[in-house]
């Protein structure tokens, strides 16, 4: 009797554990379903990317001679959910045995657990560390810090290792990175692909069904198969990686991509694998084409941060995304969805997000994330926004980044102090402030940058929790040195700003 092998939209690799013993008589099931396409209002580019990549992956399997049942979104019989499609396929093929690689989201793992078929969820082997390996590493540790886990991953993979020692004599070259805004960018950006016929069909479908979601569908230029994604990787490694480290934290008004990879969406959907990406980067270092600070920094993002973030998500369980340790409850302002704001840093980050379904890490962390944290927005609304607007967004990688790293809503599991900053940081790392209606140098009074006001108000609001944190002592000392009158003016202006924002005034 045949087995059904379910392949989800973000599992598009032939090395998938569910496909490893694919045999004659097995049927691969792939389905475009409304439940997955609308659990958040995904950016239209993300939906188009996944549907096009799914259709091409299915075509590749068929070329190999594999029987594929592919259900399109506009199929009149489409039940609308993954489990619904499993049940329909089980009936059509007269089988109840299903193999799937475990999804990256508790919601779907639980839905599959509840599916009344003989269903096996196999571990997702597309990561360097197994879930169980991370759990063993984390067990008994009072603090979970990425750096220690990362070193284990370096040893495990042998990446940038010279025998037992780290290449270049150090594990981490971060102090050489984080240069401020480079002014100009000597890189043409990520490789762009002209949509083929399959992709054009998908674009029409997405336009008709998801045209009202936040985000520009066209121009659409993402890679949609493994070959294209590898070409995009090759271009990045050759042309951008050498400067990746130097400018990884910089932000420019007119440049969305700087020297970043724009590969997260490909990695997360299965078109690229973490080790092939890291080996390509290491090769550039070994052959003298890219410096150690860039290559180490880049590899750390992938075998360090990406793996660590996933480990935390699964370690913490399904309730992690609901945490709100700071008790923040304000609503996300409309300017996250494109309404006008006078804050240039936010309006540019949101505009680039709308256009590309992309913003780089520091825009996510220190502009939109920082503002939401300072303003006391409810973390679940923040997470919903991030899930909705980025092409690389999935809950396994979003939760620890948003709930943990960005919003401190897990109370400090992910970060030893909240990622908050006044306008100074943005002014130093970007050119946004020069085009802004606010003045970053003004701390209080007419034209004061809202980040400046909200920064002190945040510290004041959470004094009890953070005052004794040694990494924040300096911030409180500075605040306390302000004269009483100025302190009161800052707090009162911050309050006025937040109230005006809540009323939908232009801020
Ligand atoms: P590069 O800057 O070129 O980095 C290379 C790769 O490193 C990325 O593609 C990614 O795979 C990995 N990486 C780097 N930092 C992280 C990190 N913190 N967590 C996980 N992987 C990392 N990344 C996602 O893949 N999906 C998300 O939904 C997501 N949401 C985020 C939300 C917030 C609030 C923050 C602060 C970060 C988030 N990130 C997310 C991490 C990071 O911002 C993106 O991975 C990165 O911007 C993707 O762009 P890139 O491919 O150009 O990455
Ligand atoms: C994100 C997404 C979207 C938009 N659509 C589909 C789909 O129609 N069919 C499918 O199999 N997967 C889709 N996905 C990816 C899933 O939502 C993803 O597998 C889970 O969120 C777990 O990571
Ligand atoms: Fe952002 Fe403040 Fe700079 Fe304006 S002045 S761009 S609000 S940091």
UniProtKB/TrEMBL annotation:
Gene3D superfamilies: 1.25.40.80, Deoxyribodipyrimidine photolyase-related, DNA Cyclobutane Dipyrimidine Photolyase, subunit A, domain 3, HUPs. The keyword Lyase applies. SUPFAM superfamilies: Cryptochrome/photolyase FAD-binding domain. InterPro entries: Crypto/Photolyase_FAD-like_sf (IPR036134), PhrB-like (IPR007357), Rossmann-like_a/b/a_fold (IPR014729), UV-DNA_repair_photolyase (IPR052551). Transmembrane segments: none annotated. GO terms for molecular function: lyase activity. Keywords: Lyase. The keyword Lyase applies. This is Deoxyribodipyrimidine photolyase-related protein.
């Amino acid at each position: 009797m045949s087995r059904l092998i379910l392949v989800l939209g973000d599992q598009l690799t032939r090395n998938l554990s569910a496909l490893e013993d694919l045999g004659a008589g097995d049927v691969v099931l792939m389905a475009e379903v409304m439940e997955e396409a609308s659990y958040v209002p995904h950016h239209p580019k993300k939906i188009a990317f996944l549907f096009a990549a799914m259709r091409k992956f299915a075509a590749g399997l068929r070329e190999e001679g594999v029987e594929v049942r592919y259900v399109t979104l506009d199929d009149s019989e489409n039940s609308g959910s993954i489990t619904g499609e499993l049940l329909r396929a089980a009936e059509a093929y007269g089988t109840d045995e299903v193999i799937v690689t475990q999804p990256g989201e508790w919601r779907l793992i639980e839905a599959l657990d509840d599916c009344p078929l003989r269903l096996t969820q196999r571990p997702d082997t597309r990561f360097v560390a197994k879930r169980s390996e991370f759990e063993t590493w984390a067990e008994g540790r009072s603090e979970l810090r990425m750096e220690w886990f990362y070193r284990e991953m370096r040893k495990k993979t042998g990446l940038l290792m010279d025998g037992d020692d780290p290449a270049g004599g150090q594990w981490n070259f971060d102090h050489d990175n984080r240069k401020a805004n480079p002014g100009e960018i000597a890189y043409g950006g990520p490789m762009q692909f002209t949509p083929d016929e399959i992709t054009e069909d998908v674009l029409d479908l997405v336009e008709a069904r998801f045209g009202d979601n936040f985000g520009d569908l066209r121009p659409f230029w993402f890679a949609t198969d493994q070959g294209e994604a590898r070409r995009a990787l090759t271009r990045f490694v050759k042309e951008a990686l050498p400067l990746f480290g130097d400018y990884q934290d910089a932000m420019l008004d007119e440049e969305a991509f700087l020297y970043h990879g724009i590969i997260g969406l490909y990695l997360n959907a299965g078109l690229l694998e973490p080790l092939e990406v890291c080996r390509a980067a290491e090769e550039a270092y070994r052959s003298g084409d890219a410096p150690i600070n860039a290559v180490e920094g880049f590899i750390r993002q992938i075998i360090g941060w990406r793996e660590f973030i996933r480990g935390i998500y699964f370690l913490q369980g399904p309730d992690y995304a609901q945490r709100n340790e700071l008790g923040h409850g304000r609503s996300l302002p409309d300017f996250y969805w494109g309404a006008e704001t006078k804050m240039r840093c936010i309006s540019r980050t949101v505009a680039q997000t709308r256009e590309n379904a992309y913003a780089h890490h520091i825009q996510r962390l220190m502009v939109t994330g920082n503002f939401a944290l300072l303003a006391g927005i409810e973390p679940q609304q923040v997470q919903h926004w991030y899930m909705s607007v980025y092409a690389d967004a999935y809950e396994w990688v979003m939760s620890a980044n948003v709930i943990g790293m960005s919003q401190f809503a897990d109370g400090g599991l992910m970060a030893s102090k909240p990622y908050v900053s006044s306008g100074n940081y943005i002014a130093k790392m970007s050119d946004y402030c020069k085009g802004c209606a606010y003045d970053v140098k003004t701390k209080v009074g007419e034209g004061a940058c809202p980040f400046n006001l909200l920064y002190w108000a945040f510290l004041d609001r959470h004094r009890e929790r953070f005052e004794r944190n040694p990494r924040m002592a300096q911030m409180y000392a500075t605040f306390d040195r302000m004269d009483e009158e100025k302190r009161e003016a800052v707090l009162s202006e911050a309050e006025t700003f937040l109230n005006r924002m809540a009323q939908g005034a232009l801020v």
